[in-house]
Amino acid sequence: MSTHVETTGPLTTESGAPVSDNQNSQTAGVGGPVLLQDQLLIEKLAHFNRERIPERIVHARGAGAYGKFTVTADVTGYTRAAFLSEVGKETEVFARFSTVAGNLGAADAVRDPRGFALKFYTEEGNYDLVGNNTPVFFIKDAIKFPDFIHTQKRDPYTGSQEADNVFDFWGLSPESTHQVTWLFGDRGIPASYRHMHGFGSHTFQWTNADGEIFWVKYHFKTDQGIKNLTEEEAAVLAGQDPDSHQRDLRESIETGDFPNWTVYVQVMPASEAADYRFNPFDLTKVWPHADYPLIPIGKMELNRNPENIFAEVEQSVFSPAHFVPGIGPSPDKMLQGRLFGYGDAHRYRVGINADHLPVNRPHAAEARTHGRDGQMYDGRHGGAKNYEPNSFGGPAQTDKPLWADVAVSGATTESVAPSHAEDNDFVQAGNLYRLMSESEQARLISNLAGALAGVTRDDILRRAIENFRKADADYGKRLEAAVEALRG
Ligand code: HEM
């Protein structure tokens, strides 16, 4: 995939001239000052200064691998996506797994959601599914995302993550109670990227050849089995081997122990959305499997490591707006915000031609746009016309939208998303708590109390605990007692 450079022959400058001395810079006389005419020295220092690009504002720390997706069930009744059109059909994929809050060099074994970003190189263009290892999220409106992430990252004054900020925001955003309960439970620190499930998390639109609409949620279940670390195990591993997840993924692929996931969807016919007991476009809620069962549709295997982490992982870009015919967005307000956010991040972080890089460009299709030029443009379009319509036989529009239109009504508004019959911020958090065994509950309480004990202000602490009490009275009571015991 990458363009290899010959390693035989003489060392050269960037412009290809042979280098005579790579150990000693040029000086005016032995022991004298260094000369401006030493272009090799200047070029090396200048290139070195520009080696880093801005790290991702979230999910900076991650690891990637290539593999394949294989269809195992007929889903043509639900979607006309070509890569899902036949049982047995294979599509190349690139996956990048990540933590959320840590910077580029942060340790892997931490309590944090894991990103689960996938790029399917389909014959109709690249389809990106940019999910997490959790089926839900902390908030349900993109307008809150920058504030939320500010509380997860470093405080402007202390330069560290602060429990006060974290629990202040969560306490004031009760819709986070479900995801926070998930995060401080057993699955909050996966043992590796191979031993966790993946979720598209949002609801997406599938449309079939007849134009029928279905709302769909994706689930990737690990075939390696779920394995997690306890708080104590993670603290030791994060110190001893900060790259534990990255190393595990690379080594398992190097030894031929390829990680696999079984892929399922939950499918809701569009006609059922309005009366469903939960708002189906609310990212803080799951669709219980009893309502919409998991339908197996495929397998994903990762079997090839990237050769160059910077080129293929750091510069990889995934966008929830990268759809293919038969797949589209839902009105989920978080997803809608993300449709803008990622492309914008790519243009800032990698540049306007990020989609031309080998890892990002379509592999099974060709990008035929009239977009041109910009930094690092490689001239791939030659002398072809750069406008449309044109009379020179250039690529033209298809008149076939990727996804189906969705009916809307009412005036523009800044209201909260509609509440369905059983919607509130606590119902599914309480259900999750009550689903846990006694020992799971005990670990959840201990993990959460440990983090809450770092909060310095009583009002922030009380408000945070109150949300868990509203989810389940026993949950709140035990948490309060555990925090009090830790605070002494
Ligand atoms: C409105 C809410 C959100 C916004 C504005 C947002 C924005 C971003 C941005 C700007 C990046 C960095 C992209 C880059 O530099 O290449 C990113 C990365 C990522 N986000 Fe989000 N995000 C949001 C919610 C979510 C949710 C709900 C999920 C999962 C369900 C998610 C999963 C990811 C993943 C997996 C990555 C890393 C992608 C990669 O490996 O390159 N994000 N997000």
TrEMBL record:
Enzyme Commission numbers on file: 1.11.1.6
Keyword set, alphabetical order: Heme, Hydrogen peroxide, Iron, Metal-binding, Oxidoreductase, Peroxidase
InterPro entries: Catalase, Catalase_3, Catalase_AS, Catalase_clade1/3, Catalase_core, Catalase_haem_BS, Catalase_immune_responsive, Catalase_sf
Residue stretches of biased makeup (Polar residues): 1-28
UniProt cross-references to PROSITE patterns, sorted A to Z: CATALASE_1, CATALASE_2, CATALASE_3
Reactions catalysed, as given in the entry: 2 H2O2 = O2 + 2 H2O
Biased composition, class Basic and acidic residues, residue ranges: 365-381
Alphabetized Pfam families for the sequence: Catalase, Catalase-rel
Superkingdom, taxonomy of origin: Bacteria
Residues in Catalase core domain copies: 12-396
UniProt region (Disordered), positions on chain: 1-29, 365-391
Keyword Cell wall biogenesis/degradation: no
Entry annotated with the keyword Repeat: no
Entry's family note: Belongs to the catalase family.
PANTHER family, per the entry: CATALASE
Protein name, per record: Catalase
Species annotation: Streptomyces gossypii
